[in-house]
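Form 7-S
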Amino acid sequence: MRPLRGTAKTAPTPPPKPQDVSAWITRHPGHLRAEEEQQLDDLLSRCPQLAGLRGHVHAFACMICDHTGADLPAWIRAVRAGELPYLHAFSDGLERDMDAVIAGLTLPWSSGPVEGHVNRIKMLKRQMYGRASLPLLRKRVLLARHSVTASRKSWLNQDLKPGKGKGGARRCWSKWWARVRAGS
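Output:
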């Protein structure tokens, strides 16, 4: 037993996690650390499907960043020529609404702000679930629209500051809630 104790074997490095690999593939190549780039290159040399996937993902990301939606049909043909069934399904989805996808990849406008407002309203509605009706939701949405500085100024102007001592914040909240219910 003694001779084996002196020759300790190092454990093989564990394979990278799938979420790490997907992050490396979708990240800009210039933003990878040296060790990540080495691991990714090692992985891509062992799996040609992943190398093809990386090329297609990089080409699609370039279309998004450069607003070159006219290149989409050529990208879809290149994806179909490969043997990546999940990308085939993705390209089929893009092809179903080709005009909208090309417009989204070409035009500088974005529906991001609208989606953000819809998401914010859904969050407010979830917070109030089962507690109120549409008029209160309307008031919360309108009150939440104000910026933080405007809301702080209104706190000071309406004398709704939390008082010192026990229950000050609760009294402040009660005053605000009473004004919201009163419709002022």
